[in-house]
Amino acid sequence: MGNFIKRILYPGFFILVLVIIFSGCTPHSPQPTTVPENTVFMINDSFVPQTITVTPGTKITWVNMDTEVHSVTCQMSNEMEGVFFDSGAIEPGWIYERTFINTGQFHYRCKFQPTGRMTGVVIVQ
User: Does the pLDDT value for residue 47 go beyond 70?
Assistant: First the structure.
């Protein structure tokens, strides 16, 4: 019986342990990530794309892929007196979403960057 255990059961047990360990090691297929259609990325102190054109009722998503805090700040628009919005601080990895109802051109900037350095435009038509 001693030889039987050494020759059959030990190798069988060893193989069973290996099967259990490696059964969870199949190649991982990454799930495709979907990016909303109307997305603006904040990267390298820039809005990409810098200009985006949408129809009324469209939601735009800004994604901060940079290493520092940014904002999406719109002061007065030329076409629509009084339009104003401010995302506040958008930390790295965070998003900001806004739905545009009215037509017009909405010029925005990052209030944490020097004036004119990080700007963008939403055109709603």
Answer: yes
